[in-house]
Write a structure and sequence with these properties.
By secondary structure, the chain is of the alpha+beta class. It is built from six helices and six strands; from the N terminus they run βααβββααααββ.
C-alpha cells in the first residue's frame, strides 16, 4: 500500500460458504456500503490497536490513585505480556474483576466529598480530534521511527494550546485521546527496539536490554515524566 500509494488491498472472501451467517457483523457492514461479500472483493486497510498497555495496577486492581481501580483493557497488570489479545483481556476482566470485587468488599473505602472544579482550562477543543488522529496514524501507527514519533510529539505539543472552557462529552473524549496519545508516543520514542505490536523501523529487532516497563506520569501542572523498571521475565503462576 505504501509503495503503490493505495488506500487499501483487496480481500477475496467469495469462496467462503455461508459468509453472512458466519460473519454477520462484517456482512452487515459490507452491505451497508454496497458490497456483497459473496460477489465482490472487500477493500481492507490496516487499523492500529494503540493501547497495548494501560493504567498500572497491582494484582488486586489498585491504581496509584486511592479508591480508583482499573480492570481489563484499561489496566496494565503485567499478566498479558507484550501483545494484547482478545482472549487475554477477556480472561483478565474475569479474574481481576472478581479480585477487585473481593477487595472492595473486604476494605471499606473512605467516603469523601467530590472536589468542585472551577476551571476547565485543561479541556481541549473537539475541533482538534481529526488532526490528532491523523498525526497518530501517520507517526505512531503500524510502523514507527524516531523521526515519525518526534514529529507526532511536535504536533501534540501544538495541539495542547487548543483549550476550551465548554465542557462536553466530545471535549472530555478529545482530551482523553490527547493524553493517551501523548503517553503512547513518549513511550514508543523511549523504547529503542521492536516488541509485540510496537514496531520501530529504525530498531526492527527485539533487545534483551529492553525487557522493561515504561510508565508515564502526568503531574498536576501538566508536565510529563517517565519511569523505566525491570520486568521479571520468569514464568510466574499467579494464584
Amino acid at each position: 500500500m505504501e509503495i503503490t500509494h493505495s488506500q487499501h488491498v483487496w480481500l477475496d472472501a467469495r469462496g467462503i460458504k455461508e459468509f453472512s451467517e458466519r460473519f454477520p457483523t462484517i456482512y452487515a457492514s459490507c452491505k451497508e456500503i454496497g458490497i456483497d461479500p459473496g460477489r465482490d472483493l472487500i477493500p481492507v486497510a490496516p487499523a492500529s490497536h494503540y493501547a497495548s498497555g494501560g493504567v498500572r495496577t497491582d494484582l488486586n486492581g489498585h491504581s496509584s490513585v486511592d479508591g480508583l481501580y482499573a480492570v481489563g483493557e484499561t489496566a496494565c497488570t503485567g499478566a498479558h505480556g507484550a501483545n494484547r489479545l482478545a482472549s487475554n483481556s477477556l480472561l483478565e476482566g474475569l479474574v481481576f474483576g472478581a479480585r477487585i470485587a473481593e477487595d472492595i468488599a473486604a476494605n471499606q473505602l473512605p467516603q469523601e466529598h467530590p472536589v468542585a472544579q472551577d476551571s476547565f482550562d485543561f479541556l481541549l477543543s473537539p475541533s482538534i480530534r481529526g488532526e490528532l488522529q491523523r498525526a497518530m496514524s501517520k507517526g505512531a501507527g503500524v510502523v514507527r521511527s524516531e523521526a515519525s514519533l518526534k514529529e507526532t510529539l511536535r504536533t501534540l505539543e501544538r495541539l495542547k494550546g487548543a483549550a476550551t472552557i465548554y465542557a462536553s462529552v466530545d471535549a472530555w473524549e478529545t482530551t482523553n485521546l490527547y493524553l493517551l496519545a501523548t503517553a503512547i508516543a513518549r513511550s514508543a520514542l523511549e523504547r529503542c527496539e521492536s516488541r509485540g505490536s510496537h514496531y520501530r523501523q529504525d530498531y526492527p529487532e527485539s533487545s534483551s536490554t529492553w525487557i522493561k516497563r515504561i510508565t508515564q506520569k502526568l503531574a498536576s501542572d501538566g508536565s510529563w515524566s517517565s519511569k523505566i523498571t525491570e520486568v521479571n521475565s520468569d514464568l510466574t503462576i499467579v494464584k
